[in-house]
Amino acid sequence: MRTLPHYQAARLRMGLAITDPIINPDTGYAVISMAYPIRFDGQFVGAASANITLGVLSKFLDTHRASPNSITLIADQRGDIIAHPVMPKGMRRSKERVELATLSELDEPQVVKAVQQRKALGVDRFSFELGADGKEYAALFTRFPEKFLKEWEVIVVTPTDDFVGELKRSNRKLIWSMIALVLIESALIYLMAKKISRPIEIVSGAIERIRSLSFGQSRLPNRAFAKSASFRGRQSCSRMHCGRSRSLSRWGSCAN
Length: 256
What we know:
The protein has five helices and eleven strands, in the order αββββαββββαβββαα. By secondary structure, it is α+β, with helices and mostly antiparallel strands.
C-alpha cells in the first residue's frame, strides 16, 4: 500500500492525490485511485484511499447527456480516453493487455473531427460540418480546475439539430403550408376571374353586333330582303312601262 502511486503522491503533496487510470489486474478494467493524507499532530501518518471504476464514470456520462444525440467523454492532454459513455470504447487490447484507447481510435467520426478542428483552430468552442449531407455539430472542450491536479478535460460533441431541429422542421412545414395556400389562392382567383369575365364577354359581343348593325340577324335574311327589293323594283318598272304603252295607244287613236 505504501508503495502505490496515489499513496506516495498524497504524502508528498499533503493533499488529495488522484492517479491516472490504471488497469486493475484482478478485473481487467481501468480504475482511478485516490488518496487523502491522514495527519496526527501535523505529521503524516497514513492515507485514506479508494478506487473508482471507469464504469461508474461511464454510466454518469451516459445518463447526463447534453442532448439526446450528444457524446460526452473525458480525456487527458495526451489524447487518452479517461471515460466514455460506452465503457468498452474507452479501452483497447494490445498484446493481450487492456489499455486505454485514444481519441483518434474512436469509431465516432464527429469526435475525431472535433479534436482535429480544435488543434487547427486553437479554440475550445466551435461548430463544424461533417459528412456528405453537411450535418452541423457543436463542440465544447472544458478543462478541469487546476486544483484537481490533472490535465483532463471534458469533451462534448452534439449535433445542432438537437437544439434547433424542431424549429427547422416547423419552418419547413410553414413554408410548405404557405406554398399550398398560394396555389389554392391562385386557383380561386383564376376561377373567379373566369366567372366574372363571362358576362363581360357577352356584353362585349352584343356591343360588337350593334356596331356592325347585325342586331343578332344572320346574313341570310339580308340577302332575302335584297332579292325582295329587286323583285319589287322590277314590278314597278313593268307597271310604269305598261302605263306608258296605254297612254301612247290612246294618243294614237285620238289623232286618227
